[in-house]
Amino acid sequence: MTKPASNLQIDSSRLWDTIHTTAQFGATPKGGVRRLTLGPEDKQVRDWFRAACENAGLDVQVDGLGNMFALRRGRDMSKPPLGLGSHLDTQPTGGKFDGILGTLAALEVIRTLNDAGIETELPLCVTNWTNEEGSRYAPAMMGSAAFVGDFTVDDILGRKDAAGISVAEALDSIGYRGDLPVGAQPFSGFLELHIEQGPILEAEGKTIGVVENGQGVLWYDGRITGFESHAGSTPMNLRRDALATLSEIVLAIEAIAVELGNAVGTVGEAVIASPSRNVIPGEIAFTIDARSADAAILAQLDERIRAAAAGIAAKRKVEVTLDLVWRKEPTHFDKTLVGAVESAANALGYANRRITSGAGHDACNLNAKVPTAMIFVPCKDGVSHNELEDATQTDCASGANVLLHTVLSLAGVAK
Ligand code: GLV
Ligand code: MN
Ligand code: MN
């Protein structure tokens, strides 16, 4: 029996169960998840996802970078499907929600439509994008970036992790280098549900964030070459200390981001080449992540970080190189789709506000090629990229209901 679409709700317990079932793949003792892209735990969750999609009657295809597309037929198969989903990989010390909530909610939407006997006009396509997190391989959002043509497939296949394993080797080792050409899957639009990963919704008591914009991103690989020498016998004024140089760079980045406003800057990785207690560090590799939602400020961040690094290098007589490995301009999501998300949230009676995403998302890449929008739900204390990341069953279900009703309004219910 077909139920009326207007008061349809997803199954909150079923969604919550899938979140906890999948959190076992890569579960950490502190209650988080370590599911690095293209590793054994990623294979486990991908296999689970493929089987769950097939059980829901979807036809699963995998492209040459391991992006997964699970198609539900629509009444009008001449039209491209509406895409919905996110990513299944996590940070090294990640949580149960970042990414996977969006893909599981998309699956829950399909299960709900199946149970209600509803066919949509447009086909629907549930997706899992490869390597959203960017911690094993740079850049982040690698699968969706190649999908929209920001990088060539060969470039991405050749990227190596810290152990020297290429993306191609990792894909082959888990059996997820598929036949579908990257970028070939058409979409008429794309929707991604995600936890906010920041504190705004919780602080304001809002259930839904209607995401309008996404921050632009700069990622650099840095290297400092000073000179190793004896920690006891080298006078302070004769040192060329790579770590002291990095310390100044870290503080300069912090000051630049604060001064510019609407900007953030982080040195998240730093490795001393041959660390020893009584050797002045001579060589350090480090990374910088700097972001702003304003394109002009992003450009100033780039200029000022480079100038600060050059000035500190000259003063300390060391060499500093900064290699820009990823630059993404700020995202402005599709006004029609953003409006559809807002209308669905209002129709369902959820307190909501428009919001800018601080984190990057596959949706930000897709927006360049396909009309795209995002839905945020609150997470506890705004914490993410941490094993303590948490969200409530009610908020996850509310987000999935907004996704469902946005899908119904965009994909149309077949008469
Ligand atoms: C992805 O998680 C990012 O925003 O770096
Ligand atoms: Mn994510
Ligand atoms: Mn993340």
UniProtKB/TrEMBL annotation:
<keyword id="KW-0479">Metal-binding</keyword>
<feature type="binding site">
    <location>
        <position position="194"/>
    </location>
    <ligand>
        <name>Zn(2+) 1</name>
    </ligand>
</feature>
<comment type="similarity">
    <text>Belongs to the peptidase M20 family.</text>
</comment>
<dbReference type="InterPro" id="IPR036264">
    <property type="entry name" value="Bact_exopeptidase_dim_dom"/>
</dbReference>
<keyword id="KW-0862">Zinc</keyword>
<feature type="binding site">
    <location>
        <position position="87"/>
    </location>
    <ligand>
        <name>Zn(2+) 1</name>
    </ligand>
</feature>
<dbReference type="InterPro" id="IPR002933">
    <property type="entry name" value="Peptidase_M20"/>
</dbReference>
<dbReference type="InterPro" id="IPR010158">
    <property type="entry name" value="Amidase_Cbmase"/>
</dbReference>
<dbReference type="GO" id="GO:0050538">
    <property type="term" value="F:N-carbamoyl-L-amino-acid hydrolase activity"/>
</dbReference>
<keyword id="KW-0378">Hydrolase</keyword>
<dbReference type="Pfam" id="PF01546">
    <property type="entry name" value="Peptidase_M20"/>
</dbReference>
<protein>
    <submittedName>
        <fullName>Amidase, hydantoinase/carbamoylase</fullName>
        <ecNumber>3.5.1.87</ecNumber>
    </submittedName>
</protein>
<feature type="binding site">
    <location>
        <position position="385"/>
    </location>
    <ligand>
        <name>Zn(2+) 2</name>
    </ligand>
</feature>
<feature type="binding site">
    <location>
        <position position="133"/>
    </location>
    <ligand>
        <name>Zn(2+) 2</name>
    </ligand>
</feature>
<feature type="binding site">
    <location>
        <position position="98"/>
    </location>
    <ligand>
        <name>Zn(2+) 1</name>
    </ligand>
</feature>
<dbReference type="GO" id="GO:0016813">
    <property type="term" value="F:hydrolase activity, acting on carbon-nitrogen (but not peptide) bonds, in linear amidines"/>
</dbReference>
<dbReference type="GO" id="GO:0046872">
    <property type="term" value="F:metal ion binding"/>
</dbReference>
<feature type="binding site">
    <location>
        <position position="98"/>
    </location>
    <ligand>
        <name>Zn(2+) 2</name>
    </ligand>
</feature>
